[in-house]
């Protein structure tokens, strides 16, 4: 399969550095010092920081090995990790939101760890037939309503899985809430490729690939209606265009109390619980078209080669998925467990998390399988560019029609891979 030229250049650089490096060279911690591991973590909330701090402290108690945490924001970790790898000063492991060309050539194969547990679909990142990333916990796309506004308007919303609304029912009811209250918008939606993919999956229930995985369908006419529906939502009346086009934070809009609903994810819950005081909110079931669907976030744990601590690093990663560790970590972090059958005490968040767990349980393996194929096609990559999402944003801006956006997706996909692309 053809790879993006930029990827080839980075992997070539990685290969040269790997050949030159040796396990005794200097590192952030002493290489070969198995009594201490350096763990670079992307964590942008206090809850996430506390979860990893608990994990580090607990592992040291149980094993005697110190976990030296280096906690960074999501934007900073990519830059710092890339620099560390290119200078052969990589940490022993890292928690990253996505896997990029900056470190695929350095990553440890975690397949043996993955095979020990009953992981949910979508919790692994595969590259060149090796599993190089495993989710620490699971965050999923999901819906919230401003319960105060909906109750004021006298409009009902789903409270059980049997009451899940269709996209058409949702838009009608959300518009009714705006009409009967002082809400500014019916919905805000996180500007995320995962949310767009989730909407498209649920709307038409179709895979982006043929059954044999050799033909890409996602730019085909099968997705025209789903894409058109998404673009039409961004009309500055139902939903503000500024979120998709200018990066305005939809969660902040929702927290003003003037937005009827939010399509974002389970990762917002702890922040909402700590910051929303002027209205009641509720997690609700995501609308469906042909099927129910959710998409999982990134949040991958990656181990690195050439540290001298590879064996101890894999021991620590394997320990992360013990039932009791997953249970406490997910309770602190506000995520669903990556392992099936793990019981988590979410306290006041329990009812909300029950909704998100049901979303995950009721989603077919198709979205996760498609994401894996899509990663093989276009990732890892240096940028956050997404063939599908980027072209739909052009349609939202009025630069192209939805059909023209699909044609461009098809052209870009064909130019970066050797996949056959259906029209």
Automatic annotation (TrEMBL):
Top-rank taxon, per record: Bacteria
Key word Iron present: no
This protein's record includes keyword Glycosyltransferase: no
A Pfam family hit: SBP_bac_8
Residues spanning the signal sequence: 1-25
Gene3D superfamilies attached to this UniProt entry: Periplasmic binding protein-like II
Keyword vocabulary terms for this entry: Signal
Protein name: Extracellular solute-binding protein
Phylogenetic placement of the source organism: Bacteria, Bacillati, Bacillota, Bacilli, Lactobacillales
